[in-house]
Amino acid sequence: MELSRDDASVISLTGPDSHRLVRSPGVGSVVIGPAAGGSQRPDLVVAADDAIDWTVFDPFKVPAGYPWPRIIVYEGDDTGFFDWARRRPIETFEWRPGVAHVVDATGAYVSRLGITLRNAPLHLTVPSVPHGVLTVNGDLSLLTAVLADGGACPAVEFNPDTLPAADAVPLRLPELPAFAAAQRVGVTVRPLRQAFDCASLLQFPDTRHLSLGGQLVNVAALAQLRHLRSLRLRFCPDLTGLPALDSWPELTHLIAFNVEETAGKRLRGELRRPDRQWEHSGVSQLRKPEWFATEYGLPFSGWPAGKAKKATTAFRTAQRAIATATGPDGVEAAIRAFVAVVNAMRGIETTEREDAGDAVSQLAADTPVGDLTEDAQEWFDDARDF
Question: How much is the pTM?
């Protein structure tokens, strides 16, 4: 069933003709979950304990013939999608379970599997997918992972929850022996919160490609990862102790983006040395410490400087207006004014559009008249023309 225009289909997701699915050209994702209290507004509303017939998506294709949807976000506890993925490959599946599970995903083909754990433990036999990526978010201590016989997990990413206090005891990854042979490892935490202890990465001694983001400590320990070929550093307010690039004889690729300026300038100097060849490497957007305190928390931190400045100014203006609002109309007017500024910018990218939606949610979450996030997203959808 190919899609050439807005299309609506009745599907039997949780029972006979239980849902109406609306698809639009260019939209390759579907969100499935509870009507209220979920992380995202669902396209298809289900209860967490509903049994789901995942095969209802089998007839759907994109015009090029690939399976639709490409991306599925699911908040709930039906694990049948792993069985479905044994015969119908899934490009990206983001799962947010609510209760404890023991899942054997052997043979399931999910190219990018993301799991968010906050409420209950998960014991997972990890699917082995060539070039596949497993991302684990939330409370990492809730995960127990094993590999299927002969299996491998070549790439893992971690986005752990961190404490608000920057001086809290640094967070370490739990011991995860199933991933000891991972070739690609990534860890992202937020700047100015609880730091991530880089020494806990030494459990992945064969890592070739490492990506780190946020507040870091024990950066010097990275010198022991002798096989690194690429290193990416993003939004790091403190890189004290970062080893010299010569510490990694095989390193040929370095990206440092929105990092503190002292270390950033040093890295730029090392990249200019004529005795070493670098591929697609660079150091950009060097930041002073105060930038992380005043600007990072906004969704525009990755935007080009000119756009980010305009968006930040409009955001602060909306914040001030909302602080004095006496009713929802005042909040709505402030948010529509912010969106109008973004509308006027040329060349807004898809990711920037998503960032603007995040900014609207931030503005609406804490107002003098309560949380208006749901209303604000309707105002955002109605007002945007990008």
Answer: 0.80
